[in-house]
Amino acid sequence: MNEKEWFDKGVDLIKLGRYKEAIKACEKATELNPQNSDAWIVKCILICIGDMKKQ
């Protein structure tokens, strides 16, 4: 899959509430294109949400 497909998969996984898998999909997108700011932002937001839930 290309970076857009990985990012789109991440967005779809978010809609399903599958956040850990969404993070991994965004990681794949950023591995393929480190300049993909949307994937970085979504990944960071998901990580922050996960951290807040732990508190």
Automatic annotation (TrEMBL):
Gene3D superfamilies: Tetratricopeptide repeat domain
TPR repeat locations: 3-36
Entry-linked Pfam families: TPR_1
Keywords in alphabetical order: TPR repeat
Protein name as catalogued: Uncharacterized protein
Organism, as annotated: Candidatus Jettenia caeni
